[in-house]
Design a protein that fits this description.
The complex is a heterodimer. Chain A is α+β, with helices and mostly antiparallel strands. In chain A, about 35% of the residues lie in helices and about 15% in strands. Chain A is built from 15 helices and 20 strands. In chain A, strand 8 (about 180-185) and strand 9 (about 190) form a beta hairpin. Helix content of chain B is about 35%, strand content about 20%. Chain B has helices at about 20-30, 45-50, 60-65, 70-80, 115-120, 130-135, 160-175, 220-225, 320-335, 345-365, 375-385, 390-400, 415-425, 440-460, 465-475; strands spanning about 10-15, 35-40, 80-85, 85-90, 95-100, 155-160, 180, 185-190, 195-200, 205-210, 210-215, 230-245, 250-255, 260-265, 270-280, 290-295, 300, 305, 310-315. In chain B, the strands form four sheets. Chain B has an eight-stranded mixed sheet with strand order 5-4-13-14-15-12-16-19. In chain B, strand 13 (about 250-255) and strand 14 (about 260-265) form a beta hairpin. Chain B starts with 9 loop residues before the first strand and ends with a helix. Classes of the chains: A alpha+beta, B alpha/beta. The interface between A and B is large, with 46 and 45 residues.
Chain lengths: ~500, ~475
């Protein structure tokens, strides 16, 4: 992603970009599900959506379904969009809270177009006024990360990126500046550069192994430290959402693609063995496994400096936050966008480094708080892991958010960070945190008025969803169907 | 559907009858239902303090006032309010002059912010800004909805007389259920975080669940509740008014001199001159008053919420004082306690208040941070006030590569900052290298086109006074009055 973005963005400049990678080193496929921002990344590159989707076996994604998080047996969808529409500039959910207190029985989800469409396996691209029901949502993709990497590689090579096959075995440092001056590959090939982007994954080949940058360990907040991943045959309907199911010592993902379903179990090895975690995963697949399960090891946290000297770490070398909310690729994208904005013009400038590190640090921290929310906004205490979270002392920022929500359904406001208030509403409400009160301004409306307004919104939302095609229909119509059986066989 | 039990009515008392008090009273009255009794204790005259709001708003005022039922026709027909494309700084710190205009997001040719092209081509920003050029030419017209129009990039606020706005607001308040009491407050007893007793000089005793201190610079209510005001320095201020036959330009003008600065506000029937200088100095035209600049450590203490000048005092060099007042009120509306214990609302209010104060202050301070200013007591003190890590970061990043570092929910946006930096003569050391992908000829041509479009449009726009005159005629014909 970094090579293609830099090559595209700086294609008119005299910049020599080399992509050093080895086919012998696999990619870590934990980031197959994305956030809506990925569309802007692709659009900026001029990538045709249908071509991209066909090439990467991609499906559309309207949100994430969380199962068993609040309580066992619960499920809710965190949608890419709002609930209802604001009424006289007041948040819709405040009216819903008032109605609920008075005995209203409709789910908050019944007022969300993306949730209803996802539940019914429907999809269409939002068009028209973004403030209108049926258009006030976003969408992302679920794709085969390996195929996406290949797709981008071809794209970047067409943009002049020189791909060098090989593994770095030696790094040469400039004694005076402390910068990395070159890397030597297995075959003796030496690559010199002014700037190195370390996308080498967890090990941080340059940022950590050479520069000893250090790592902020966030395991005490997000202690899951292993994952096992396996693809399986697709079965059943092709639903436009990722699923994350809570387990006794972690959680399990399910990502439906056109040609297969991606699965994984993220867990804390303190409370479950690798074998048991693998067994739990393999015994809950939709269909036969398509490969041997692959084990991953990680430590949640972030590099102390994302950019250190002349090395910028992007992706897993920058830090790791479990992919519960599909943020892995998003954080890569943020890193790339920020690097482009701060790309060195005349050498490495400490001011650029400071700004990059400040911005990425904020991104990581705000995602961390949001992920932690899922573990602590729960009534589960049926295993050691859940009891650990029950007893946890939360970061102040998160504790304040929870208190304000529980008291009155208020979401603390920030401008920066990927998750906006509707996302916080989705998770807190979805995990059974029902606020005690609501915004007093809603009380200037009579109950009958609130009931009538909400009912109209509910009817309008349902009507919009009814006229929406199934995802499979839409993939075909959009020219995005890959020819995989699930899509071409006509299961709608 | 069952109607939940109606909870006990709550009482909110607004202490203050000036701009802050009347805006807050009307806002609360229109936003809250019948479960609230709203009382406004008009009390002491705060007209003097209201002058420190500076007589100018930013673009956010339009919607804010509209929500209160004060639409633009009312402002134009029933007060001397005029339009404002911003503030024209003249002879500011070693002779800088520029139009600090209100503007929609600046163009990003080929996806690259405009400022980087300007840096490479070493050309000025101001000729490319329709609201700046129109204001400097004394022209005004409403920005159209059509985004293709050059004028659609302009944004505007108002130049106003605070006393007139208070009168309009009070008329609106009288149409509501608000009880207005014209009496001074003798004392206030804060019995708990949820209950206060206001004792009036008329011997009346009022109980309140929430008290709003809109008492202006005296801030005696919040201080009685335990609020602590952190004063940075003091200034002297005075306002004089002179009648005029013709309306001036659609912008405030600010002229600096050795001992302070003077703001001139151009209203329909008068010209207001606000003089700011060292504390204790008097102007020729009007008596001087003194104000301590600074802010409360916490604007919500116990069950008392301070707004406006009772909470923070910023020199009215920019529309920041009005922006802060608007934010104080909006923050309060969002956080009217939902329960007996307002602890959560109080913490969030204070968190946002502190951010807003800091962010408003750094924009002001950015206009004071420059070499070459006079070495007099006023200017030395003004420069000493500038100590903020956030401002340092903003200035360093802009100077380095034209980067606009932003923080959460700042009141001043990227356009405000870009225009301010340019006006203060700050130029980035380097531009975004993506600009090199666009030839110099191409970018000069693009910039020339924008400049020409702006100039052509400005020549066709009517003078401010004619526009306002015609607008009023039209509104009167429509029976708006």
């Amino acid at each position: 992603m970094t090579a293609v973005a830099l090559s595209h963005k700086f294609k008119d400049l005299n910049l020599d970009i080399s992509l050093v990678e080895s086919d012998q080193i696999g990619t870590v496929g934990v980031g197959e599900a994305t956030l809506p921002h990925i569309r802007f990344f692709n659009q900026a590159l001029g990538i045709d959506e249908a071509t991209f989707m066909k090439s990467t076996e991609a499906t559309f994604k309207l949100g994430i379904e969380f199962c068993d998080w609040g309580r066992k047996g619960d499920h809710y969808i965190h949608p890419f969009g709002d609930y209802g529409v604001p009424i006289d500039e007041l948040d819709f959910h405040q009216f819903w809270l008032k109605l609920r207190k008075a005995g209203g029985t409709h789910r908050l989800s019944d007022y969300s177009y993306p949730i209803l469409a996802a539940e019914q396996g429907r999809f269409r691209i939002p068009e028209g006024d973004v403030n209108e029901i049926g258009s006030n949502f976003g969408y992302a993709y679920q794709f085969d990360a390996g195929l996406y990497a290949k797709f981008l590689r071809a794209f970047s090579e067409a943009n002049g990126v020189r791909r060098v096959e090989g593994r770095a075995v030696e790094v040469d440092m400039d004694g005076e500046s402390g910068h990395i001056s070159s890397i030597k590959l297995e075959d003796g090939h030496v690559i010199e550069a002014d700037l190195f982007v370390d996308c080498s994954g967890f090990r941080g080949l340059l940022i950590e192994q050479e520069l000893k940058t250090g790592y902020d360990d966030w395991s005490h907040w997000l202690p899951c430290n292993r994952a096992v991943a396996v693809p399986c045959e697709s079965r059943g309907e092709l639903r436009p959402f990722t699923r994350a199911t809570a387990r006794t010592a972690g959680w399990q993902w399910r990502i439906p693609l056109q040609h297969r379903t991606g699965n994984g179990h993220v867990y804390w090895n303190e409370f479950i063995s690798d074998d048991e975690a693998t067994h739990q995963l393999m015994s809950t697949l939709d269909g036969p496994a398509l490969a041997e399960p692959k084990q991953l090891f990680f430590k949640t946290g972030r590099r102390k400096k994302f950019w250190n000297r002349n090395v910028v770490s992007i992706g897993l070398s920058a830090g790791f936050l479990e992919p519960l909310e599909s943020t892995s690729i998003h954080l890569i994208q943020e890193g790339i966008t920020t690097l482009i904005e701060l790309f060195p013009r005349t050498g490495i400038n400490p001011l650029d480094i400071d700004e990059y590190n400040a911005r990425m640090g904020l991104n990581f921290e705000r995602v961390r708080d949001f992920l932690l929310l899922h573990y602590v906004a729960t009534q589960r205490d049926d295993s050691e892991m859940w009891r650990y979270f029950q007893a946890m002392e939360l970061p102040d920022s998160l504790q304040e958010k929870l208190s304000a929500w529980n008291a009155r359904g208020y979401v603390l406001q920030y401008e920066f960070g990927v998750f906006l208030p509707p996302s916080w509403v989705a998770v807190m409400h979805g995990q059974n945190l029902i606020p005690e009160g609501h915004d007093p301004r809603v009380d200037r409306y009579s109950l009958a008025e609130v009931e009538a307004r909400l009912e109209q919104i509910r009817i309008d939302t349902a009507r919009e969803v009814e006229t929406t095609p199934t995802q499979v229909e839409f993939l075909r119509r959009h020219g995005a169907a890959s020819g995989s059986p699930l899509v071409s066989a006509g299961k709608m | 559907m069952r109607d939940p039990m109606t909870p006990r009515s709550k009482t909110i008392i607004i202490c203050g009858g000036g701009l802050a008090g009347s805006l807050a009273t009307l806002s609360l009255s229109l936003s809250l239902g019948s479960g609230y009794h709203i009382l406004q204790v008009v009390g002491a005259d705060t007209r003097q303090d209201d002058r420190l709001y500076g007589g100018a708003t930013g673009p956010g005022a339009y919607n804010f006032l509209l929500r209160l039922g004060l639409d633009e026709p009312t402002l134009m027909l029933q007060s001397a309010t005029s339009f404002s494309f911003g503030t024209h700084f003249r002879q500011w710190l070693a002779g800088r002059s520029w139009m600090q205009c209100h503007h929609a997001p600046l163009p990003t040719p080929s996806g690259i912010p405009l400022r980087h092209y300007l840096t490479r081509e070493s050309v000025g920003l101001e000729p490319l800004l329709i609201s700046a050029q129109a204001a400097l030419a004394g022209k005004f017209a409403h920005p159209p909805a059509d985004p293709k129009s050059v004028l659609a990039s302009a944004e505007y606020g108002y130049q106003f007389d605070a006393e007139e706005w208070v009168a309009l607001l009070d008329r609106k308040i009288r149409e509501t259920d608000v009880r207005r009491i014209d009496a001074n407050i003798r004392s206030i007893t804060f019995e708990s975080d949820t209950r206060s007793i206001v004792h009036l000089e008329t011997d009346e005793r009022l109980e309140a669940d929430l008290v709003v201190d809109a008492s202006g610079l005296s801030r005696h209510v919040v201080e009685a509740a335990g609020g602590t005001f952190r004063a940075a320095r003091s200034i002297g201020f005075s306002l004089s008014s002179a009648p005029t036959d013709a309306l001036g330009p659609p912008c405030r003008t600010i002229d600096a001199d050795e001992t302070g600065w003077t703001a001139t506000t151009h209203l329909q029937n008068a010209r207001h001159t606000l003089r700011i200088g060292e504390a204790g100095t008097a102007s020729d035209e009007a008596p001087a008053h003194t104000a301590a600049l600074g802010h409360l450590e916490e604007a919500w203490v116990g069950n008392c919420v301070a707004i406006g000048h009772a909470a923070s005092v910023i020199e009215p060099l920019t529309p920041a004082p009005m922006m802060m007042l608007q934010r104080d009120i909006e923050r309060l509306l969002e956080l009217i306690p939902a329960h007996a214990d307002p602890a959560i609302e109080r913490r969030e209010f204070n968190r946002r208040f502190q951010d807003d104060v800091e962010h408003a202050a750094i924009f002001h301070d950015a206009l004071m941070t420059a070499d070459g200013g006079p070495e007099t007591e006023y200017w030395q003190a003004a420069r000493r006030q500038t100590q903020s890590g956030k401002l340092d970061r903003k200035l360093a990043q802009f100077s380095n590569r034209g980067l606009l570092t932003s923080f959460d929910l700042e009141p001043f946006n990227e356009e405000d900052w870009t225009i301010a930096h340019w006006g203060m003569g700050r130029r980035p050391d380097q531009y975004d290298r993506q600009v090199d992908g666009v030839s110099g000829t191409q970018s000069q041509s693009n910039l020339g086109q924008i400049r020409n479009s702006v100039q052509q449009l400005v020549t066709k726009m009517p003078p401010h006074h004619l526009y306002v005159g015609k607008l009023k005629q039209y509104l009167e014909k429509q029976n708006y009055a």
